[in-house]
Amino acid sequence: MSDPPTPRAADRPSPDWRTWVLGARPRTLPAAVAPVLVGTAAAAGPSSEGALRGLTVWVALCALGVAVLVQVATNYANDYSDGVRGTDDPGERVGPPRLVGNGLATAGQVKRAVVVAFALTALCGLPLVVFVEPWLVLVGLAAMAAGWFYTGGSHPYGYAGFGELFVYVCFGLVATVGSTYVQIERVPWISVVAGVAVGSFATALLVVNNLRDIPGDTRANKRTLAVRLGDQRTRVLYVALMVLPFVLIPVVAGAGGRPLAALGLVGVVLARRPVITVLAGAVGPGLIPVLADTGRVQLVTCVLVAVGLFVGG
Length: 313
What we know:
By secondary structure, the protein is mainly α. About 65% of the residues lie in helices and about 0% in strands.
């Protein structure tokens, strides 16, 4: 079955690079970068192992490429699936424009972008499969399937309220622990705890996005977790997810024997604004800055934690 055409598709020029950057949703990419930084730093060995403390650069770059490209592919897949379902109605949408929903690209063009992004994901992951562990191919296939079926297929789990679980697992635990494993081929407990913290930030991004979209998702029968919980309980969940990492950082720093990881607590200062905005009851466009602020908190906090883990490794 061919993809349904968007309005006046034949009259529209091919999308340029700016359109594809918009569709990749750059503000969501810290959720892909942060776990790789933290997981790689958690694998750092004692200073006697050299300037890089036993880390392999090409392995880290491959892990980073896989994480970022899975995120981009998932974003394109979400744009495509929501667009063909009609749930990205430009007349009702509060957030940034979508490629298919706003007629910036045809459904077919976006679907091809999904395929390209997943192919590049596989290309980045191939060296890890060949030179680290062959069974990592199963992890990669599972991540790509999860990215597609988030809003794709006949029964998308993102429409049933399980999107947050996907983000927590894939962009928290799996990405962090996986980045540690491909470096040292074992999983220290410090990487797991760090993965829980990183996953909380990544999930907070999705939670506040879905909080903003509750009215439109309700009309479209998109039963996200935010729709199921309702406005007030979703706000509480967001705050809990933003607080949890700062509870866990002292555990990583203290019990993990890497005190400099406590540098990540500086992120509390940046977390104040988005948390207060959400607790103050901001809705619709008022929540858009919270997305950027949440991504900033995640990236700054995780970079500082990663620096502390690396230096104190």
